Amino acid sequence: MTGRTVQGRVLEALISDEQRALIPEVSGNSINGLGETERRRPSPVYWHPPSQKHPYAALQTWMITKSSREVPVTADMNNTLGGRGSKARAEKAPAPARDTPENWSRRVKEIALSNEADLVGIAQTKKEWLFEGYDTPAPWIVVLGIEMTHEDLAKAPEPESMVEVMRAYNRGTRAARALADWILGQGYDAEPEGGPIAGKLPMIPAAIACGFGELGKHGSIINRRFGSSFRLACVLTDLPLRPDPEDAFGADEFCTNCRLCEQACPPDAIADHKQMVRGETKWYVDFDRCVPYFNETYGCGLCIAICPWSRPGVAPRLARKLTRRSK
Fold first, then answer.
1. What's the pLDDT at 6?
2. 238: left (phi over 0), alpha (psi -120 to 50) or beta
3. C-beta separation of 191 from 236 below 8 A
4. β-strands 214-215, 190-194 pairing
5. CB within 10 Å: which end of the chain, N or C, has fewer?
6. For residue 223, what are the contacts with CB-CB under 8 A and spacing of at least 6?
């Protein structure tokens, strides 16, 4: 009996009949473009507002309802875990202030870091990042990284891990809203986005483009400072900025040889090889295997928690070691 067969049976045993009845016939892998050789924009599949009636809307609602009932502190994110900041945006100044893109970029990072962000990067917005059906006139995206407490994250898939993830999402949303208000005060447009509900684009491609790190086998970014123990938020803006360079330091090669997250994943959703997804060969987590277990276990997070890069103090040492080795 193969390991995959055993894991498949484990997954079946862990999924409730209530959830199984809501799983749509269309594969999430198909929606994501697994196996497609042509490039295209991503399709909404999960974490989008249920009102959009995407195929997994009912399943998503079930997961949120279950988690809110069993972990009540996450039921009202606007009033728990520090809140998410005001939904109302600041008034846009009538005339844009003038400065160089270099100075604006420096000031944006200063403002973000003084308003709860732990990482800040800037990238030019690319249309291919946007979900199908979405658009933005904003030429720039400012990506924010929010560190998570590994002590709580390491308790995955228990509720404490979910609470820490939601706390980070709240911090990210507050940071994005504060930065957006500052930009509006300079006379430029600014649209903040924070998780877990998706906005106009998945933030990982933009985060990689602006230097946050490399995509890991577990489908999350590996950063040279925080490993994978952080969450993302962003601001879309027309404030004149300068992009940051990408940062490759060997995490991709490390993942090729490391199997910790792959072996720890209960539903066997993490492959040992890269796969073709919408015309790009990349690490990809099997949606159809991951999401049902994710839904039953408060967002799981085992793969991020067990990642050696995520352990406190490990990422900087590993990054330095791999950087030296590549020279």
1. 40
2. alpha
3. yes
4. unpaired
5. C
6. 119, 145, 212, 213, 230, 309, 315
Can you tell me the distance from the alpha carbon of 279 to that of 182, in angstroms, rounded to the nearest whole number?
38
Q: Which domain holds residue 143?
A: 3-326
Token pair in block for residue 291? 């999401």
**Strand ranges (DSSP E) for the chain?**
119-124, 140-147, 190-194, 214-215, 221-222, 230-237, 275-277, 280-282
Amino acid at the residue 283: W
CA distance 80 to 74: 7
Q: Report d(CA 209, CA 232) in Å as an integer.
A: 13
Structure tokens at 193: 């986005």
- Structural domain count, the chain: 1
221: its two tokens: 């970014």
**So what's the pLDDT on residue 324?**
82
The model carries a pTM of 0.95
Are 84 and 174 in contact, with CB atoms under 8 Å apart? yes
- DSSP track, 254-322: HHHH--HHHHH-TT--B-SS-EEETTEEE--B-HHHHHHHHHHTTT--HHHHH-GGGSTTHHHHHHHHH
Cβ-based neighbours of 96, under 8 Å, separated by 6 or more: 186, 187, 188
Find out whether 195 and 231 touch, Cβ atoms under 8 Å. Answer: yes
41-91, pLDDT tens digit by residue? 999 999 988 777 789 999 999 999 999 999 999 999 999 999 999 999 999
Tell me whether strands 230-237 and 275-277 are parallel, antiparallel or unpaired: unpaired
| Integer Cα distance of 307 and 298 in angstroms | 19
Q: Are 221 and 148 in contact (CB under 8 A)?
A: no
